[in-house]
Amino acid sequence: MKVVALVLDSVGLGYLPDAPLFGDEGADTLDHTVLKTGVELPRLAELGLGWVPGVHTLPRRPPRAGFGRMKEVNPGKDTSTGHWEFVGIHLKEPFRTFPEGFPEELLWTWAQAIGVGGWLLNRPYSGTEAIQDYGKAHLETGFPIVYTSADSVFQVAAHLDVVPLDTLYAWCEKARELLKGPYQVARVIARPFAGEEGRFHRREDLRKDFALKPPPNVLHALRDTGVEVVGVGKIPDIYAHEGFSREVKTKDNQDGLEKTLALMGEEFSGLIFTNLVDFDAKYGHRRDPLGYARALAELDAFLPRLLEALGPEDHLFLVSDHGNDPTFFGTDHTREYGMLLWVGPGVEGDLGTRETFADLGATWARLFGARWEGPGTSLI
Questions:
Q1: What mean pLDDT comes out for the span 243-269?
Q2: Per-position DSSP letters for 14-79, written without gaps between them
Q3: Which residues are annotated as part of the binding site?
Q4: For the segment 126-160, what is each residue's pLDDT rounded down to a tens digit?
Q5: How many CB atoms lie under 10 A from the CB of residue 181?
Q6: DSSP secondary-structure letter at 206?
Q7: CATH number for region 2-94+213-368
Q8: CA 20 to 30 Å from 58, out of 12, 39, 66, 360?
């Protein structure tokens, strides 16, 4: 038996009741994208997405899958917060954010540890704008460009001609060591870039994430039961590479789908856990509804190939970890319901509004017969 879980990163299904606390009242990633662009998603509709409460833009077709939505319990709206909850991690405190930038005392400790005389920027900033606005100064000084966002991230940009890639990664590893405990930053991200002044561009293929080590979770439970767990795309990064028997890198959504399909054709029993990040990284943050709609349509067109590849005992989950409404103000994630579609033997009808994302991981544990006594209620 294979369980395939596709995370449609940021494809939220409308704002959560507590969204006003996050400044996100009115956000609705899926519906607003469809309304703005007119994109048609017939295969998602056939799975029952149009029946989910709050989804008003897709037709209600006879559903071929179980359908529902999930509330996020964890106090946040970022990748780590949502993905950790998927596997049964409930956070007592949110990951820390730094809207005013990081403390100078911390940065001086880091700078001395990595042997540089300073840094540039140190505040929330667009990554593409950071290298355009501070790239010249970086070339002149060799100082790392440090910035953050509304999420709990410490991002370090450096030009490949100035800072070798291994050195940048080492800088980030040192930052990861420092950003634990009271700082509790979810992710340190290496952001290498290249090109000449005026034409700087990020090397997304060389990006590397350094996540906090997660506490025991469903992935560990599966591993301890002998289940093969394959992380595809940025999934292993989110969990600090813990709990995986294999890791498969991807270049974009299409590559992630193709590699997931190839894994489905292999002879093994286990979990294939894939993140499709383009919705979020390429289109949500950039407030590009046309690009977002195009990515949704590409996924929709690929779905028949995934469905055809399912064996009689296999399961396919389509889920989302937060919202990132490309029609909303700002550039940040939005606090929304997560998607829940489940294709599997005997699975059909309304799965309801789940009280936590952790129901997903609890269901995986039940399917594989793994022992899990943490958060979440299995769907079976």
A1: 98
A2: SB-TTGGGGT-TT--HHHHHHHHH----HHHHHTTGGGSTT--SS--PPPSSEEEEE---SS--SH
A3: 9, 280, 285, 321-322, 333
A4: 999 999 999 999 999 999 999 999 899 999 999 99
A5: 6
A6: G
A7: 3.40.720.10
A8: 360
Q: Which residue has the tokens 């299904």?
A: 13
Share of the chain above pLDDT 90, in %: 99
Query: What is the pLDDT at residue 245?
Result: 97
- Indicate the pLDDT class of residue 61, thresholds 50, 70 and 90: very high
Q: Can you tell me whether residue 2 is helix, strand or coil?
A: strand
pLDDT score of 231 more than 90: yes
In 234-358, the DSSP E strands lie at 246-248, 270-276, 315-319, 338-343, 349-354
Domains of the chain: which residue ranges?
2-94+213-368, 104-211
Task: Indicate yes or no: pTM above 0.90.
Answer: yes
pLDDT at res. 150? 87
Question: What would the CATH number be for the domain defined by 104-211?
Answer: 3.30.70.1250
Which residues are part of a known binding site for Mn(2+)? Answer: 9, 280, 285, 321-322, 333
